[in-house]
Design goal:
Number of helices: 15
CATH class: Mainly Alpha
Structural class: mainly alpha
CATH architecture: Orthogonal Bundle
CATH superfamily: Ammonium transporter AmtB like domains
Number of domains: 1
Shape: globular
Largest sheet: none
Radius of gyration: 20 Å
Helix content: 55-70%
Length: 415
């Protein structure tokens, strides 16, 4: 056991978990006051539900010995059977690291928690809490765990056969959640008043606080994915900061050029877009490449805001523009900017003379991740809509989810 690696991974696990409350505040500030607690609740409950599904079956489906073909892990570690806090030598360890298997399990758990929480921004202000809780539990098992196995297990077919790489979650987290978000909004339909009235964020200071928490936690998300306290972690930490800073700056420059005003929401959204795009690249690219990745994220994700108006679907908090588009962009850019001298786990990208091989592999992985998540999430949403009902009643939506679903209020003014 390396105590430094173990300590870094424990800290990184805490940082990634901290991102879920950050996401709750980021989203919570963007909805109307009558729905703020409802949004926070849909994010926070993931910390409860997914912890349970992960320890019971999710972890073994993602990282258990392959059942054949690289598609799913077996049930060897069901209920965390055989997952030890002691290292008995690499031959007996699940993960080839210098940290206990329980630490890797916990680190991966935090990714499993935040991924379904990302979806909530797209379906804000109109979904039943009970149905969402059931969706989260099932989705974490039938969508997230298989995708994690394909990409992050050494025997997963995307990693082992297609040779695509994803340092910290471009496909597993962001494309996965973004595709599911698109499926959900198509099933559930738009909010009352969508494109007919202005729906403003109720508290941008909360959103900015949440964005800061996300940015802070993202260093555990990306640098922790080195799975050691080493130079690769330092590189991922550096590229994460650069891409976020550049993307946030480029986003508000785009706002200034197109609308004449830079906004606080714009900088926060741009920074998150940069964080999303650098996630699959962080351990494969250098500082100048991360400048380019952040700049492209700021421009492309800003432009992608128009997608929901072009196709007339209500992605309430722009999950698709930021996470789906940002995840696709970052995953593909690995194929352009990857540097094997930084991390030999990948071939050099096209811009470093490596040819098209890595870019093609990344593109195939992107398509597989999108199609799988979209199709399964759409079917699951349809089934739950028919059996439990996905959407609140018009009266509940009008009055707000805080009172009607939780009997609570975010703000009670003294009489």
């Amino acid at each position: 056991m390396d105590t430094g690696d173990t300590a870094w991974l424990l800290v990184s696990s805490a940082l990634v978990l901290f991102m879920t409350p950050g996401l709750a505040l980021f989203y919570g500030g963007m909805v109307r006051a009558k729905n703020a607690l409802g949004m926070l609740m849909k994010n926070y409950v993931a910390m409860g539900i997914v912890t349970i599904t992960w320890i019971v079956i999710g972890y073994t489906l993602a990282f258990g010995p392959d059942m054949g073909g690289g598609f799913l892990g077996g049930l060897d570690y069901i209920g965390l059977k055989g997952v030890s806090s002691n290292i008995e030598g690499e031959a007996g360890a699940i993960h080839a690291t210098h940290a206990p298997d329980t630490v890797i399990m916990l680190f991966q758990m935090m990714f499993a928690i935040i991924t379904p929480a990302l979806i909530t921004g797209a379906i804000a202000e109109r979904v039943k809490f009970t149905t969402w809780a059931v969706f989260t539990a099932i989705w974490s098992i039938v969508v997230y765990a298989p995708m994690a196995h394909w990409v992050w297990s050494s025997s997963g077919f995307i990693f082992a056969q297609i040779k695509a790489v994803d340092f910290a979650g471009g496909t597993v987290v962001h494309i996965n959640a973004g595709a599911a978000a698109l499926a959900m909004v198509l099933v559930i339909g738009p909010r009352m008043g969508f494109r007919k009235e202005i729906i403003r964020p109720h508290s941008l200071p909360l959103t900015l606080l949440g964005a800061g928490m996300l940015w802070f936690g993202w260093f555990g998300f990306n640098a922790g994915s080195a799975l050691a306290a080493n130079g690769l972690a330092a590189n991922a930490f550096m590229t994460t900061q650069i891409a976020a800073a550049v993307a946030g700056t480029v986003w508000i420059l785009a706002e200034q050029v197109t609308h004449g005003k830079a906004t606080t929401l714009g900088f926060a959204s741009g920074a998150v877009a940069g964080l999303v795009a650098i996630t699959p690249c962080a351990g494969f690219v250098g500082p100048l490449a991360s400048v380019a990745i952040g700049g492209l994220a700021g421009v492309v994700c800003y432009a992608a805001l128009q997608i929901k108006f072009m196709f007339n679907f209500d992605d309430a908090l722009d999950v698709i523009a930021v996470h789906l588009v940002g995840g696709v962009l970052g995953s593909l850019l690995v194929g352009l900017f990857a540097d094997s001298t930084i991390n030999p786990a990948t071939k050099d990208g096209l811009f470093l003379g490596g040819g098209m091989d890595q870019l093609v592999a990344q593109a195939i992985a992107v398509v597989i991740a999108f199609v799988f998540s979209f199709v399964v999430s759409f079917i699951l949403a349809k089934l739950l809509d028919v059996t439990m009902g996905l959407r609140v009643t018009p009266d509940e939506e009008q009055r707000g989810l805080d009172i009607t679903l939780h009997e609570e209020q975010s703000y009670v003014m003294a009489e």
